[in-house]
Amino acid sequence: MTDAATVGFRGVDASMLPGLRVIRRRGPARARRAALLALLHLGGEKALEPADLAVLRRLIRIKMPSDRPHTLDGCFNAWLAVRGGDQQGIMRILGLSRSVPATYGLGETLVAHLGHGGPDRSRTWRHVFISPRLNGWTVVSGPSCDPDNEPRVETWIQDLSSVYGDAQAYFYGSQGDGDAWLVGSRGRIVRRFSSEKPETASGEPLPIELRTLRRLGFTGPPERLDAENADDFWDFVGECGAPQVAAELSIDPVWTGWPADLDVDAHPLIAWPESDDEVSILRGCYTFNI
Fold first, then answer.
1. Closest CA to 222 of 253, 247, 244, 250
2. How far, CA to CA in Å, does 158 sit from each of 29, 155, 164?
């Protein structure tokens, strides 16, 4: 991921870890903060000494009361929307047994970082950012939530909707990498659609899909347009994408964001499966907005 923070750490490598720890213990205040960020960049939480990890956790707790939800629009956006606000119950269904409090800035950095590959992707793929209840819905964000490329997401949506009534999974590629949605209700998948894999579509088109088709003068379902007229198909996708579908069915964490009167219950979490090798802040997943 290339951004201002990445540029700031050019030339820093793992050989500097011992010296950075010394700066953290005995350096001047301005250098100590920079050393903490460099340690997080190079090794994540594993690079920190216990006292520094406690500082990091305390900083997050201090910021949480004034932290407000904001949109998480990255290059690759994958998320679940689950009715209600049962963070711990959702974690159990997803097989996530560890969690820590987080800020929205840290969650945004984590999701973007993993979406671009991240370090040791096979081991860190399951980290997710879990919102509190937002206007009646919990949002779970991370690459493992992609209904287009993660087969287990279908089982998750079936199980989540069986317990909570309604659950959906979405993918939105903001660089033209496609849209997908998987909609579950009471334990059943009622609609699957993917602009990149229209042949996998199932279920009846959603009301928002039907309205878009009528407005454009097309007859559906939209997946049939791909076989008949590719231009018509992409006209449809351009007007009916994952953020629009999510905004109608539940909540859109990518475009629409959160209204001023958003009903927020509790605080967000970073969650991941039980493992001695995994921590909440991964190597390279640093942020100036913790």
1. 244
2. 51, 5, 10
**Cβ pair 43, 283 in contact under 8 A:** yes
Query: What pLDDT sits at residue 79?
Result: 95
Task: Give the CB-side neighbour count of residue 264, counting CA atoms within 13 A.
Answer: 19
Written as six digits, the tokens of 270 are 């970073």
- The total of structural domains in the chain comes to 2
Length of the chain: 290
Of 146, 105, 127, 145, residue with least CA distance to 290: 105
Q: Which of 34, 66, 98 is the last residue of a domain?
A: 66
Domain co-membership, 173 together with 55: no
Phi, psi of 92 (to 5 degrees): -60, -45
| Span 86-115, pLDDT tens digits | 999 999 999 999 898 888 888 888 888 777
The C-alpha atoms of residue 46 and residue 82 are separated, in whole angstroms, by 32
Tokens representing 132?
């509190």
Query: What confidence tens digit (pLDDT) does each residue in 120-136 have?
Result: 444 546 889 999 999 89
Number of neighbours of residue 49 by Cβ within 10 angstroms: 12
- Which two three-digit tokens encode residue 114? 């993993």
Asked if the model's pLDDT at residue 119 lies above 60, the reply is no
Q: What is the pTM of this model?
A: 0.85
Interatomic CA distance for residues 76 and 16, integer angstroms: 32
The pLDDT-based confidence of 177 (bands split at 50, 70, 90) is confident
